[in-house]
Amino acid sequence: MKIKNILKQSIPKKYLLLAILVTMLVITSCASYAMFTVTEEKNNAISIVTGSLYYQLTVDGANTTSINVPANTTKTYTVVLTNNNNRTARFNFYYIGNLASNVEIGYVVEAEAIAPPAATGVNLESNSSQTYQVKVSNNSSSAVTIQLGVSVGLDYNDLSLPSNGHLLEEAKSATAAETLLAKANPENLDYNTATVEQQKEMWTFSHPATEQTEALTDYRYIGVGPNNYVSFNDELWRIIGVFTVDDGTGKKEQRLKIIRNESIGTYSWDNKPSGTGSSTSSFGSNEWPDARLNYLLNPGHENESVGGSLYWNSGSGNCY
User: Fold this and answer.
1) pLDDT mean over 39-63
2) What is the mean pLDDT of the chain?
3) Please, are residues 148 and 93 in contact by the beta-carbon 8 Å criterion?
4) pLDDT-based confidence at 52, cuts 50/70/90?
5) pTM for the full model?
6) Tell me: the pLDDT tens digits for 111-155?
7) 305-314 long-range contacts, Cβ below 8 Å, gap at least 24?
8) How does strand 56-59 pair with strand 122-124?
């Protein structure tokens, strides 16, 4: 059919008007990333909505989308996402890119229930905010920067994550080591000028790399009256410090090193007579896995007639 014949066809004005409107919306939406065009079917009618949506993101009160985490640091940041539009909108919140194997990020669940980040988005009413406590653990010798991202859309349309976006999952509960490190004194603080309360907390010590080890940072209690007592196994123990330990898989963790405040008494390393078990002399075995002291102190030896994991289980029975 020739073009002039097409023009002669009768086209209802309402369809012509709709076609012109859609064309204008397509052109407008390409002009700015903030513009959107969404169709929604309600009561057998199609409505077309166009406009701009905005948001504000702050990290510890600063207008930024970056979290800068120093080396060997675990810290919780307050991240506030605000809907400053005049209508309800939908948001999803994520971090961008892959994390290093020794860096973790997640949101902290508090007493007041919050809507966790969701791939399809969470609705926020006009001029309302959602506050997240975001915990980052950087167990590396260098600082890291984590980039945050936000997607926004209309409240009745599901969102999706970008290809490089990752949802925040619930963060693990703070360990005892992390709780203590949050109060540790910096390395450049002089003990003689520190307050009495500061003198009771842990102190930071950095060690340069050697041929055997990489650069290390550990935390120790020093002074005459440190606040380093802890209850463990229903007994009083003292914390020596916090040290970085390889868990056996290459992943490094910060763990407490503790010592019992009082001696548990006099016990032999091992006193099995010659020919008993794997003993080879009348002085017992010098192999720790086979030692009766190991049977006494650690779990998994409940079936032993002597030791029997009694100390580990706070039990009573026969031991040498």
Assistant:
1) 68
2) 79
3) yes
4) confident
5) 0.48
6) 555 677 888 999 999 999 999 889 998 888 789 999 999 999 888
7) 311/264, 312/233, 314/233, 314/234
8) unpaired
E strand or H helix at 13, and its extent?
A: helix 13-29
CA distance 36 to 40: 13
Q: How far apart are CA 293 and CA 314, in angstroms?
A: 15
- The string over 185-220, giving b where at least 16 C-beta atoms fall within 10 Å of a residue's C-beta and e elsewhere, is beeebeeeeeeeebbbbbbbeeeeeeeeeeeebbbb
Position 89 scores a pLDDT of 92
Instruction: Give the separation between CA 144 and CA 310, rounded to whole angstroms.
Output: 46
The token pair that represents 183 in the structure block: 């109060």
Rg (CA), the chain: 32
281-313 tens-digit pLDDT? 666 777 888 888 898 899 999 888 878 899 888
Q: Which amino acid is at 250?
A: G
Two tokens, residue 252: 């490094």
Tokens of 20: 């012109």
Can you tell me which residue has the tokens 């076609």? 19
CA distances from 26 to 13, 53, 54, 157, 158 (A): 20, 17, 20, 19, 21
Q: What are the tokens at 171? A: 């963060």
